[in-house]
Amino acid sequence: MKSKFSFLLVMLLTFGLFLAACGEAEDGADEGAEDAPDTEETEDDAAEDDGEAAGDEMTRLQLGTGSTGGTYYPLGQEMANVMNNHVEYEDFDVSSVSSGASVDNLAQISRGEMQLGMTVHLPAQDAVNGEGEFEGHAVENVGFMGHIYPEVMQIVTTEGSGIESVEDLEGANVAIGPPGSGTQEAARLILEAAGLEDGDYNAYEEGFGDAAGQIQDGNIDASFGLLGLPDSTIDELSNQRDLRIISISDDILDEVEANSGYERMEIEADSYDFMEESAMTVTAYAVLVGSTDQVSEELGYEITRALYENADEISHTQGQHTTKENVMNGSDDLPLHPGAERYFEEEGLLD
């Protein structure tokens, strides 16, 4: 009898321990599910919260522009307004945000932190090819969506600075543009072509708006700005100080053209009231790019259609260049966003 009772007691204890172990395992699984951010349920909830249509595709987007004193920021705001007014896509909304401009916008798109961006077309080529600022880190999720306007390097100083050439910037306080901007990339190319390395001048990594204020206050001697022509900030600054546009010499232009995709151009004397003679400089294209991960083909098509069929609503001076006739400028050697490509094909804009 005792042996039977002992046997039953052992069986009951074993069964109880088994149930307890199962219960602990289930509790542990639930705790793990709550801690893991990448579960299917969590992803679906995040997609709904972020306006995602499917997977990583989104409908509520951010458009990266540039510093508040440059061309990108005010123009990007107007571009976003046009998109919001004319894109026909459920739950669509785009907000323009200030940023470090070209390189920064491309980097943020690559990380999924931004969906649309304004950029000089040359850093975009570097991003795709894993060169320049993107050495060894090619961006594979970005596509060209259209030309915006021609960008013109304008090196501004005051008449009393004694600076008449790029070489004269040695030892000066020089604003070269924010980190990650097309302005800074081009400024360094020009300075290096003039034989000036880091340390030969005092570099200020300012956006053009902030730099203009410091030129006015006498804290900065000169500023580089890859801007639209004419630029309203330069116009406003010329009302406070007597200005000069520094002309880039042929030797420097030859070196820059040999080592980049920038091309020389002439800033005509009638570009600004204060100019008495023309000045030589370099130019490139400002373009719109979009994420091929987070902007679907259908939404990319709608964004491109809405922007280029309603660009006449943009009041900014550079908006005059945002046309279907110019839309492919700056597209060389860049992959097209599938949605933009479909629009270009429908409109007969591809060769």
From TrEMBL:
Compositional bias segments (type: Acidic residues): 27-55
Keywords, alphabetical: Signal
Alphabetized SUPFAM superfamilies for the sequence: Periplasmic binding protein-like II
Biased composition annotated in UniProt, kind: Polar residues: 316-329
Residue ranges of the region described as Disordered: 27-67, 315-340
PROSITE patterns: PROKAR_LIPOPROTEIN
Signal peptide: 1-20
Pfam families xref list: NMT1_3 (PF16868)
Protein name: TAXI family TRAP transporter solute-binding subunit
Organism placement in taxonomy: Bacteria, Bacillati, Bacillota, Bacilli, Bacillales
